[in-house]
Amino acid sequence: MKTSQYIVLNKCFLNICRNVLVLAISLAMLPGHAAAIDIEDVQIKTDLTINTEQCRLRNYAIEFDVMRDNSNIGRASRELIQDSKGLDASLVTALTASKIFMEFIQNERSLLPEYDARGFHSSEYSKMVKKPFKSTVENTFLVNLDTSANTADLLDPLSVYDHLRELVCSGLREDVIFKVQEDAEIANYYFKYRGEQTIALPKHTAETLLFVRTRKTSTRETSIWFDKNKYFIPVKIEQKKDGDTQALLLATTIGVNSSK
Fold first, then answer.
1. Phi and psi (nearest 5°) for 36?
2. What DSSP letter does each residue of 136-191 carry, written as one string?
3. Chain segment 222-244, per-residue pLDDT in tens
4. Is 90 helix (H, G, I), strand (E, B) or coil?
5. Cα 191 to chain center, whole Å?
6. 134-143 per-residue burial string, b: 16 or more CB within 10 A, e: under 16
7. Rounded CA gap, 143 and 63, in Å?
8. Cα 204 to chain center, whole Å?
9. What is the pLDDT of residue 47?
10. Which of 51, 84, 228, 254 is deepest in the core (most CB within 10 A)?
11. Is it true that the peptide bond before 32 is cis, omega within 30 degrees of 0?
12. Could you read off the pLDDT of 144-166 as tens digits, one per residue?
């Protein structure tokens, strides 16, 4: 092979690696993936209640296409699982994205042993990440160990988005902030309400409500579209930084079992 050809191929390889690593970092920020800690001088609402008759789901399962630069590069799933009595529950997510021979894998789980008018109460969060050329990283931590007024009813990086879904279903139409435990840290997750939107998905058109998570210390934004006609299930999730889309999840299959 000529030297000039080798240099061109080497540059192409480095560009592919760079794109995959950028994608891996972006995907790691998607719901419910922990991100930079937000500290906002906003009063945290503690009186938000959920319409359990209309908004509580016993089980659901969502399958997503993972998109990057208008190409389908993987699959993701999100599932809520409860026992037959509707007590012990868990949220489980899985994501696999690949390009050429490089693969990114991430799995998460949130244990939710209790449920009341304020929604699920998290007790444990775990995450496994496998990035290209990196060893597998696993982390598990307990949530709500301290029952004092300052730390009680904390959400975790996964359950916070399901809690938001239930509140949106119950009528939330304004900005909101939640306290979330990120291992040894407590973060504020701030969501802005951006109104109603009609969006196109791979298999249908959806009437949605859009909430955007913003971060005080970063230009990264996570947008979540909740389907008004499907129990406010999240059907589109987009990660942007500096206005550029880094990753996009589009729902292809939705299965729901309500509590009724």
1. -60, 145
2. -EEEEEE-----STTTTT-B-TTHHHHHHHHHHHTT--S-EEEEEEETTEEEEEEE
3. 999 999 999 999 999 999 988 88
4. strand
5. 13
6. eeeeeeeeeb
7. 27
8. 21
9. 61
10. 254
11. yes
12. 876 554 545 789 999 999 999 99
Two structure tokens written together for 260? 């009724």
Give strand ranges (E) for 85-134.
89-99, 102-112, 114-116, 119-121, 124-130
Q: Are strands 137-142 and 176-182 parallel, antiparallel or unpaired?
A: unpaired
Dump pLDDT digits (tens) for 158-204. 999 999 999 999 999 999 999 999 988 899 999 999 999 999 999 88
pTM of the model: 0.82
Q: How far apart are CA 165 and CA 5, in angstroms?
A: 52
Question: % helix / strand / coil in the chain, to the nearest 5?
Answer: 15, 50, 35
**Which SS3 state, helix, strand or coil, does residue 5 take?**
helix
11-25: b or e for each residue (b if 16 or more CB lie within 10 Å)? eeeeeeeebbbebbb
**Does residue 258 have a pLDDT over 80?**
no
- Token pair, residue 239, equals 């990660």
Q: Which two tokens stand for residue 110?
A: 């949130």
Calpha distance 189→228 (Å, rounded): 23
